[in-house]
Amino acid sequence: MAGVRRRRARSAEDKAARRQQLLDAAWRLFQDRPWGTLTMAQVAAGVGLSKAALYRYFDTKETLFLAVEEAQLERWLGEVGERLDTLRRPASAEQLADVLCQTLERRPAMARLLALLHVELEQNLSQVEALRFKRALHALLTRLGTQLAAAAGLPSAEAGLRAALYVHAQVIGLWQMSDPPAAVAKLLEATDLAEMRVVFLPALREAAAALFRGLASAPTRAADNPRAVTR
Question: In the chain, N or C: fewer CB atoms in 10 Å?
Fold first, then answer.
């Protein structure tokens, strides 16, 4: 598709389709190369647009990949929710953790994209853009929280939202720990610091299962109990 220039999209439908093509192209490129080497020009060329045309849709590389993250999160969490809905209730902590890890295993670049959120993607945003994304993220995690609460037998949707927020943090933090610079990774393999190595999916399974066990056994908070009466 590179090298073939397309006509400018004019209708709302054409613009939406072109925007989706850009998101798909950016995601494909992200899966194959490091963040630091990926450019807006490469994304534009991937759909046969000029770089100037790409900037009519996204002002910066960060806003483009924030949109990619939102789209990919919706797809991933949609699959997680479908899997959760098939589990026998209440599901065990290990079953819930397996759903997270198995769906992420089929998306090797997903955790790497999520790990860019706070250190890269949110660093060059307007307040309007940041607020729009945070609202979208809140909606996605709220939906996941409702599904987690139902699957795990948590006391409320609010407890489920906390579980979803903590899982989101676990994915980001554990990926960053499991993906050190090459020199640091080599040191961790070759010295007495090997116990500091983190292998992402096994670590996430253990951490997420511990989280779900803890939330399921924790005393019900007043904020989580819709029948609680505030005196």
Answer: C
pLDDT digits (tens, 9 = 90+) for 112-162: 999 999 999 998 889 999 999 999 999 999 999 999 999 999 988 899 999
Statement: residue 17 has pLDDT above 60: yes
For residue 65, CA distances in Å to 10, 43, 47, 71 come to 23, 11, 16, 10
Residue found under tokens 């939102």: 70
Query: Is the overall model pTM greater than 0.85, yes or no?
Result: yes
- Quote the CA–CA distance of 142 and 135 in Å, as a whole number: 10
